[in-house]
Amino acid sequence: AMMAERASAFIALPGGLGTFEEILEIATWGQLNQHQKPMILYNVNGFYNALIAQLDHAVQEGFLPLQHRAKLIVCEEIDQIYNVIKNLKMPKRFVV
């Protein structure tokens, strides 16, 4: 919980069950308006393609509102992640 409070963004790299749980937990918190922070999937070599397809399927079937699916940003390259982070409005306490 402390990590979520202090984070400016969430970036998920490929991982196992713990990573999947954290992705869905942070996405759920965003859906519940507990944060408005960017949520990024680093889709290395298509690792998250199946998860992305499942989320899109949930939208098509009416189980996941499109506006909540759209909050999950998929990046294929590090430069894309950098651009998302670069464009954040950082709290003053983090600005040097």
From TrEMBL:
EC number: 3.2.2.4
Pfam family, one: Lysine_decarbox
Highest taxon in the source lineage: Bacteria
Enzymatic reactions: AMP + H2O = D-ribose 5-phosphate + adenine
One Gene Ontology cellular component: cytosol
Cross-referenced SUPFAM superfamilies: MCP/YpsA-like
GO molecular function per UniProt: AMP nucleosidase activity
Family designation: Belongs to the LOG family.
Protein name, entry field: AMP nucleosidase
